[in-house]
Design goal:
With 513 residues, this protein is of the alpha/beta class. The protein folds into three domains: 87 residues, no CATH class; 176 residues, 3-Layer(aba) Sandwich (Rossmann fold), CATH 3.40.50; 233 residues, Glycogen Phosphorylase B (Rossmann fold, 3-Layer(aba) Sandwich), CATH 3.40.50.2000. 44% of the residues lie in helices and 17% in strands. It has 20 helices and 18 strands. A ten-stranded mixed β-sheet has the order 5-6-4-1-7-8-9-12-11-10, with helices on both faces. Strands 15-14-13-16-17-18 form a six-stranded parallel β-sheet, sandwiched between helices. A two-stranded antiparallel sheet has the order 2-3. The longest helix has 21 residues. The chain binds adenosine-5'-diphosphate (ADP) and 6-O-phosphono-beta-D-fructofuranose. The site of adenosine-5'-diphosphate has 18 residues, from helix 2, strand 13, strand 14 and helix 14.
Length: 513
């Protein structure tokens, strides 16, 4: 598929986050895979396309020069997560960025200005005069590194790189530039909070096409261009800018469903789950409600814990009837709002246990292990209810991973059981998914997933209760529908669209119409 689409044109992928962080621990080399939708989705894709991936080298500066933060490292397939496939692998080209620059462009402009604005959170927006110049400088460096790789096609990822397309366009007017924006795009009334709204949009209009998860986000982007870039003309066939037409298209990202399903069936998944049940003394007969999140205020973890607390206060008979397992990962700890959020989550869990726990029941447990994909799939697989309650989220891959890890339910399970037929999933009753209405994934997964408004605590609590009490036939029916949706919009479908767009195929214009 990839060779057909791109021919022999050279591809350079540019993202802020690198897919593998190398370091040293006790004198031994280590490698970690950062949590995040972008790297999870793209590693497999780039392993298949080959080419160069330019990213900030966030690992140990004193590490082996072959993989130093400013070095290039070859990642053959066996060193990527795609070790079971015959794929070319790729070159990871790392950018060594000074600490002060990282503080101001990554912790600063990207995550204290753009991230909250795109997620419709005005309160955490912090504007510091050093942020914007640093963002410009970092984008210039990413652009230079991309141009050094002599690309025919450049594929930018996300909101850290809003200006890089303009810089690459200046150096390589002939190259085809495409960007995928992995977070929501707000309406003009909200985007107006961004002090550099016009400059940022002009940077992005250096691309030939800009992609979003939902048509709603693409429409907001076009509306922002119409409002804030007076020299651009928004037409039915695209945005006319600087003598070119820029497409704004929608393409929902998905996951590698087969891979997640296989991970969930692996021995490593089962062993990890055994370790967790031992460590926390989880009763196998007590349903598990699961949350898996980067501890980001947009993920609605505090709202979820408030809903659980409300559930136990208003339904005392549920005491001892389930355990909430929170798998957390600390994130962006250089930002005070994130450190406070981490503390708030830990405090809420401790309070839930103090107020509602008994000698033989701990209502909520918190896990912060570094897990690999198989171990994570072990958590998904064994959950009876998963709760994704983001206040706002571009897509949310956790919801899709949970669904794929549940195993394939037998079609018409209720009927099959009535007839005494065996189900291939007979050892497990599928889990139920409670899903925020405010995530991109809700567009395809609700109403088979139970929709919630995370701000509405009592209705949220009631929905968790409904999920816990859901009978087996309904769980099968809903899971069947969820799995069909997750398979339909999987990573291959997303990749096929991106390759069409990168290749400049006619579908691009169609996608924009
Ligand atoms: P985001 O991109 O904002 O982090 P997504 O839900 O789209 O949110 O993607 C998160 C990715 O990171 C998923 O692939 C998920 O497996 C992984 N992830 C999220 N939280 C954790 C966690 N606590 N532990 C391990 N992996 C996590
Ligand atoms: O998916 C959105 C996203 O911001 C990615 O760009 C990013 O890699 C991920 O969330 C995790 O955030 P960070 O890279 O800041 O750890």
């Amino acid at each position: 598929m990839i060779d057909d689409a791109l021919g022999d044109r050279s591809l350079v992928v540019v993202s802020n986050r690198e897919p593998y962080v190398h370091g040293y621990a006790d004198g031994e080399p280590t490698v970690e895979r950062p949590a995040g939708g972008l790297v999870t989705a793209l590693d497999g894709v780039v392993a298949e396309t080959g080419g160069t991936w330019v990213a900030w080298g966030s690992g140990d500066a004193d590490f082996d020069p072959a993989v130093a933060p400013d070095g290039e490292v070859e990642l053959p397939p066996e060193s990527t997560a795609q070790d079971d496939d015959d794929r070319p692998g790729y070159t990871l080209a790392r950018l060594d960025l000074p600490r002060r620059l990282v503080e101001n462009y990554y912790y600063g402009y990207s995550n204290q200005v753009l991230w909250p604005i795109c997620h419709l959170e005005a309160d955490p927006v912090t504007v510091d005069p050093e942020f914007w110049p640093a963002y410009r400088e970092a984008n210039r460096r990413f652009a230079e590194r991309a141009v050094d790789a002599d690309p025919d096609l450049v594929w930018f990822q996300d909101y850290h790189l809003g200006l890089a397309p303009k810089y690459v366009r200046e150096a390589r007017p002939d190259a085809r530039l495409v960007q995928f924006w992995h977070v929501p795009w707000p309406t003009p009334d909200f985007f107006e909070i961004c002090p550099q709204a016009t400059e940022l949009l002009r940077g992005l209009l250096g691309n030939d096409a800009v992609g979003f998860h939902l048509e709603r986000y693409a429409a907001n982007f076009r509306d922002c261009v119409a409002r804030f870039v007076p020299e651009a003309e928004v037409t039915d066939s695209g945005i006319r800018y600087d003598g070119r037409t820029v497409a704004a298209y929608a393409s929902p990202i998905g996951i590698d469903t087969e891979r997640v399903a296989a991970n969930a069936r692996s021995d490593a998944a089962a062993h990890y789950w055994d370790r967790i049940t031992d460590r926390y003394d989880l009763d196998p007969d007590r349903p598990v409600v699961l949350g898996v999140d980067r501890l980001d205020y947009t993920k609605g973890v505090v709202e979820r814990l408030d809903a659980l607390s409300h559930l136990l206060e208003t339904n005392p008979e549920l005491a001892g009837e389930f355990t909430y397992v929170q798998k957390g990962t600390r994130t962006r700890e250089g930002i005070p709002a994130y450190r406070r959020y981490y503390d708030a989550v830990r405090d809420r869990i401790a309070e839930l246990d103090r107020v509602h726990g008994t000698d033989d029941w701990t209502p909520a447990v918190y896990i912060e292990d570094d897990v690999d994909d198989r171990e994570l799939a072990g958590l998904y697989r064994n959950a009876d209810v998963a709760v994704v309650s983001s206040r706002r989220d571009g897509m949310n891959l956790v919801a899709k991973e949970f669904v794929a890890a549940q195993g394939r339910p037998f079609p018409n399970a209720g009927l099959a059981q009535a007839k005494g037929l065996e189900s291939p999933n007979r050892d497990r009753v599928p889990g139920a998914l409670v899903l925020s209405r405010f995530v991109g994934a809700a567009e395809s997964l609700c109403p088979a997933a139970l929709p919630v408004n995370p701000y509405d605590v009592s209705t949220f609590a009631e929905t968790i209760r409904t999920a816990l009490g859901m009978g087996e036939p309904e769980r099968h029916d809903r899971m069947e529908s969820l799995q069909a949706s997750v398979r339909e919009e999987d990573i291959d479908a997303w990749l096929a669209t991106q390759l069409d767009v990168l290749a400049g195929a006619s579908q691009v214009a169609a996608a924009d119409d």
